Amino acid sequence: MSSPARSRGNDPGEAARAARAAWRSRQLLDAAATLMEREGFQGVSMQALAEEAEVSVGLIYRYFGGKDELLLAVIVDVLDTISTRVPEAVAAAGDDPVEEVAAAFRAYCEVVDERRHAAVLTYRESRALSSQGRVKIKAMEVASTEPLRAALHRGTAAGLLVDLDADLVAHDLVLMAHGWALKHWYLEQKLDLGEYVAKQTALLLGSLVEPRRKRQYAHLLHPH
């Protein structure tokens, strides 16, 4: 009879293999995002991907079925990370909907910053995906904005925000976040990520917070 320590869930060897697989997958996704953003999806071969990641072509095929599947995985990875980190940020912000909106936007920008090459691919190369892949990505993008929409609705209901189109504002915030990746070559000359987030938060919330409530959110509307 095997001991509990040797059960599948507690097998050190199994855990080590899973960790190696996760590390290798991360390595391949990062290399693919960097190379595809630089060369374009059509201009990238599996051999070039292997050289970028410093692995064999055969190893790539152990993890992904081909270049199309790898592109989809790169974009899904960004959206999965957003779908985890943004709700966590909202939960940590407390019960104030305006603080939740600011925290969600900051988390979105942080993920975009960490995955800049991949974020750019969602705009430049999504047309290269299969129709099924595009449907999946669109659904994930809409779902990723839900924490923002929900916080905006709560802010309006509480009288903290003006009457607004929550869906439109949520997508405006997402576009602002992706703007950090799309125009990073220019923005980085003037701002670091923290400054970008603070200025964009102030710009948008300045038009959304109820005038009589603005003093309450001076730290967001007038960043130092």
Automatic annotation (TrEMBL):
Q: Which UniProt keywords apply?
A: DNA-binding, Transcription, Transcription regulation
According to UniProt, the name of this protein is TetR/AcrR family transcriptional regulator
Is the keyword Transcription regulation in the record? yes
Q: Which domain of life is it from?
A: Bacteria
A GO molecular-function term, please?
DNA-binding transcription factor activity
Return the annotated DNA-binding positions: 45-64
Q: Show the Pfam families listed in the entry.
A: TetR_C_24, TetR_N
Print the organism lineage. Answer: Bacteria, Bacillati, Actinomycetota, Actinomycetes, Pseudonocardiales
Query: From which organism does this entry originate?
Result: Saccharopolyspora montiporae
**Does Transcription appear among the keywords?**
yes
Q: Which residues form the HTH tetR-type domain?
A: 22-82
Q: Which Gene3D superfamilies match?
A: Homeodomain-like (1.10.10.60), Tetracycline Repressor, domain 2 (1.10.357.10)
